[in-house]
Amino acid sequence: MKRNYGTGLGILIVYLICGTHIYHSVLITWGNIIIIKCCDKRYLHHISLSYTWTYLAYMHIIEKYQSLPYILWVHQAIALRLVGMAFEISLNERIKNEAQEQKNQSSKPTVVNVENSIPEDPKAIEIIAYAYFFIGLHKGPYYRWKIFQDHFETPFGVLGDCRVITEQKLKKLAAYVILFMVLRTNFPIEIYYQDNFYVEYGADSRYLYNLPHLVMYCLQHQIVMTLCSSICTEAGFGVYPAKCNPLPGHGPSARLSLLKLAASNNDVALEQEYNFAVLRSFEFDKMVFGPKMQDTLRAWDISTRYWFYAHAYKNTCKAQKQIRKLLTYLLWSLWCGPSLQQFIIASTLYVHTQLEKEYAALQVPNESMKVTWEVGYSITRLLCLTYLTPCLIIQNPMVVLKYYNSILWMYHFLLIVFIIAALLRSDVSHPFSSLDLIP
């Protein structure tokens, strides 16, 4: 009953947000149902990824939903759930096949290490329920099928401090909303579209005007995700024993035997301490203070980052490490939207994180200089994020180009200087050959 209620409410919310455009979510969902039910499980994840990402690109390019972010958020969240489910089914099938091959080659019994949380042949109604189940808003956070299933099969939802955690989140939400409204009133986004902004103000003023908008962009996402997670906590969704080390998006990662024991034994369950770490979307300290861009990226929308690491990076293909990382950046850009703004963001972050790794490799181990290097990383990180803010908040690509032309693409020239300096200091022919790109 709880599952049917949540699914029905989710479909209603999608209709209220999307109106007649709800048919896009229906096509994405039923397309994935057909793929999961009919296609070879070995290639299931590739087919599901190709179909869903192509449909998202169609919505961005042809239907032009960039100006309707809430509609895009709904379909992006549904896409992550459905394609993630296809990846999990395909991975389980691959593990079983490998175990069967080992069994045929050896007379010794083989332990099949397959997570049984996902059915081998899920029913269409189960897939629809997972895609539309409404706990919070459809913006997020992302969660695996196992977390969804545990909500109905384990007693943890009534054992956590749900009401206390929810009240704490709502207090933070009120503070975020007040601060956002104050900033929005004093720093309107419409100024970017006015000609006098590029005539009466200098390049330094235009650049610094991005700072309050960067804060507003972060606050907007904090507001949405805090609202999502507060509804989740009130419903008892995503609560697990703290000893199982639940991770955002993934779920329990340690002492799984304790998890099974607590789920079946009320006495053991009552002895445990619980948390909602699965629902954590941001790590404030790393997001604000860094010091590196890598730290900020890892602390932003953690569950979505988990999806791209666990599926796009690790299981999309068996190519070399660098190819898989480039593919992950590409899939992330297409998921966000194939636009000029997203291309600028992805390419700039790519080069910036590469340079951080390169300078870290060139850095001489010296404790006395460690703080100086971290301050340098933090300053360049803040410069980069401030510079990219127009790409995050302005929908019109011509206005974005006009803005960057007015400040002479200053940060990109700074990146070129950093690249030349790294080339001069590096002893290898290609400074980016051994770098880790995944945020």
Automatic annotation (TrEMBL):
Domain of life: Eukaryota
Any one of the GO BP annotations: lipid modification
Compartments (UniProt record): Membrane
One GO cellular component term noted in the UniProt record for this chain: mitochondria-associated endoplasmic reticulum membrane contact site
Pathway annotation: Phospholipid metabolism; Lipid metabolism; phospholipid metabolism
Single Gene Ontology MF annotation: lysophospholipid acyltransferase activity
Transmembrane segments: 12-36, 329-351, 371-394, 406-424
Keywords: Acyltransferase, Membrane, Transferase, Transmembrane, Transmembrane helix
Membrane topology field: Multi-pass membrane protein
Family the UniProt entry places it in: Belongs to the membrane-bound acyltransferase family.
The protein's name: Lysophospholipid acyltransferase 7
Organism: Arctia plantaginis (Wood tiger moth)
